[in-house]
Amino acid sequence: MNTMMLLEMATSGFGHRIAFTDPAEGSSITYQELYDAAGAAAHRIRESGASRVAMLDVSNLAVPVALFASGWANVPYVPINYRLTRDEIDALLARIQPAFLVTGDDRLADFRDHEGLEALSRQSFLDVARAGGGEHEQRSMDPDDVGVLLFTSGTTGVPKAAVLRHKHLVSYIVSSVEFMSAEENEAALVCVPPYHIAGIAAALSSVYA
């Protein structure tokens, strides 16, 4: 049981359909393309030797690619609040090293030479993912593996990492969403930030539906 199972089922059932759209960039990705991109990105993540995949960016197509690639690579996905100060971000990143970081082009210079991080810009990450390769690598199906580490807001102290295992994420989706229930022309508008649990749930449930 792994979050990649949700994408694998969607790809088998309706791989030609649009999975995610980024109106700001005027781009989209089908389920088959997302599956292939996740496989290639997982290969790159494994090569890096990272123990976490960190996402520090606004909503865009790199977010679902990184989310599913982390599941394929069997390393936790860690979305970081991009509204935090630089010191706060550095403190969180220090806690998850060695990490593979995906961030906006405007932030990349801040982390390019950061010890314990391999940082790629959003576009570079998508280019790597779309280049292909690694699609047939094995992935763990242990339901107890950690899928997501979600940092709390830290309003009364240092942020704590909430542990969400693959069994928690998959169980929630399959028990609350009907597989292939959405029509091809239906869409969900996701208005929550990608570092929020609602954003992660929306991405997973949209894929399964």
Architecture overview:
Helix 2 (31-48) crosses helix 3 and helix 2 packs across helix 6. The protein has one domain (3-130, 144-208): Rossmann fold, CATH 3.40.50. The model has no long low-confidence stretch (mean pLDDT 92). It is an alpha/beta fold and 209 residues long. The strands form three sheets. It has a four-stranded parallel sheet. It has helices at residues 3-14, 31-48, 62-73, 86-95, 108-111, 122-130, 166-176, 197-208, and strands spanning 18-22, 27-30, 52-56, 77-79, 99-103, 117-121, 146-151, 161-165. It has eight helices and eight strands, in the order H-E-E-H-E-H-E-H-E-H-E-H-E-E-H-H. The protein starts with a helix and ends with a helix. It is globular, with a radius of gyration of 16 Å. Strand 5, helix 5 and strand 6 (117-121) form a beta-alpha-beta unit.
Q: How is the secondary structure organized here?
A:
Layout: H1 3-14, E1 18-22, E2 27-30, H2 31-48, E3 52-56, H3 62-73, E4 77-79, H4 86-95, E5 99-103, H5 108-111, E6 117-121, H6 122-130, E7 146-151, E8 161-165, H7 166-176, H8 197-208
Parallel strand pairs: 3-4, 3-5, 5-6
Antiparallel strand pairs: 1-2, 7-8
Q: Which residues sit in consecutive blocks of at least 5 with pLDDT less than 50? A: none
The CATH architecture term is 3-Layer(aba) Sandwich
Q: What integer is the average pLDDT?
A: 92
State the CATH topology: Rossmann fold
**CATH superfamily (homologous) name:** ANL, N-terminal domain
Q: Sheet bearing the most strands, described?
A: 4 strands, parallel
Return the CATH class: Alpha Beta
Protein structure class: alpha/beta
Largest sheet: spatial strand order: 4-3-5-6
Radius of gyration: 16 Å
In percent terms, what proportion of residues is strand?
A: 15-25%
How many domains? The number is 1
